[in-house]
Amino acid sequence: MSALLEVNNLGKRFGGFVALENIALSVQPGERVGLIGPNGSGKSTLVNCICGTLRNEAGSVYFDGHPLDGSIAHQRTRRGLARTFQLPRPFASLSLAENLRIPLLYTVAARGGVLRTARHVEERCLDLLREVGLEAKAKRLPRDLTQVEMRKLELARAMAAEPKLLIADESMAGLTHSEVEEILSLLNRLNEQGITIILIEHIMRAVMSFSQRLVVLVSGRKIADGEPNVVVRDPEVERAYLGQ
Amino acid sequence: MRTDVFFVVCLVVGAAVYGTAVALGNDYYFFAGYVVVQYVVLSTAWNILGGYCGYVNFGSAAFFALGAYSTVAMHRLYPVLIPLDVVIGGVVSGIVGLGMGYLTLRLRGAFFAIATLALAVVLQTLVVNWDYVGGSRGAYILRPESIPLFGSYIRYLFLIMMLLAVGAITVARLIERSRLGYGFATIRDDELAAEASGVPTLRLKLIATTISGALMGMAGAPFPYYIGFLQPSSAFGLDYAVNSIAMPLIGGTTSWVGPLVGAILLGSLQQIATVTISSAVNLLIVGFLLVGFVIVAPNGIIGLVHKYVQQKPAGPVGRADADAPETAP
User: What is the ipTM of this complex?
Assistant: First the structure.
């Protein structure tokens, strides 16, 4: 099976600081991949390079068989690559339903999706909000949401773009145990629907239970890639990441 | 309300205003009204980029002056009817708006604002040194005393400006309720998240600078006929730049209503001050009102009204109470 996402020898520098060096990553369709690493290890930089927010100086990114080099963020989203942000970035002046309307109008419709009328768009927004349990707050502004609801809105907005690959960047940060479970179950449901997911997370319990494969970054380099139970016992990972 | 119905309603309101001014039987109302309506166009145009997209343009006067000087150039080259001057002024300013957008839209916040200010300085310097349109000496445009159907020429100019205002408001409202308007709102709120949601932010910003610039140029095109003698200091006046920003801020920037309310309120106040006190106090009034609104009502008059409505029981929250976009995706 050909990879959905193929990252080859990716490199990124900020001035003299090497943020990413020679990163190679391959993600198969339908896979659940966990991406871990200490703060400053380059996880978000890697996501930004894959999603087109940052331009990589070396290497290449292929998505669904197409090279992404040179394409900008919104073009990558339209190809089916969606993401959430480490700190939720809702559209503050738009209601929850309108937040979801944006990817529907600009991504799904641009791909030639079936959203022919305003009513279609509205119904789809409500469906998505129902899926994440925010239907009752459809007309609210993001400022009225709790932390976990904000995370759910981020995920719902990414889902609205009907992605093939979803990169969830610390979607559980700052959440309680039960809230983490809620997000995990949501991510599992999405994966069951056929969406490939890369989960970036510090909560090891969540990453371990979710991921089929674990990738570890340290200081901009990939130091491990494999079965989660094997990777966490890797001496280099233990030394660099788990501090043992 | 459908856009075509809204357009007709605006036309009817515009006709009623025109009719009232005719009934008052004093051309001064047309002179004063022209300036107020001109500011409706300017502030509505500014709001398309500044209010909807969140990009503050300090160069409104440059686009306005481009429209005015396009008319002067056409007057010398091949005099045409004012409506055609308006179209030409709009095209010229629209193209310059597109160019400005292309050069500056990678800048954000204060840097973008300064770049637009620089554009105004550059264009003024060019005009000052361009003899064909009068250069620093200025240019006379002698308008006829009267015109068939309208009587005095100022009535004709007022009508043109009123039609422009109706057009500008309709365009602004259409944008606001369309896919484009939602795209603009995401740019204002968070560009990074907008791109991640598939919004082509750069293209949308170019559309905004072009439409905004074109409307400002159109507002400036009849100006030489209004003022009779056009010089760089009057066309590139600080009043235009300041009022274009202050009026939407005072009225409210998130909807087409804000610039309209702000322009009518502030424009009328300035006209009253001009005849009762002095034209020199105009900017003082703007300054005081702006400071007052920033403190008391940072979201403008519309924001105040919205807040009041929200305080009522069972009121809708947020912008979600706005109608669904009329334009199918």
Answer: 0.91
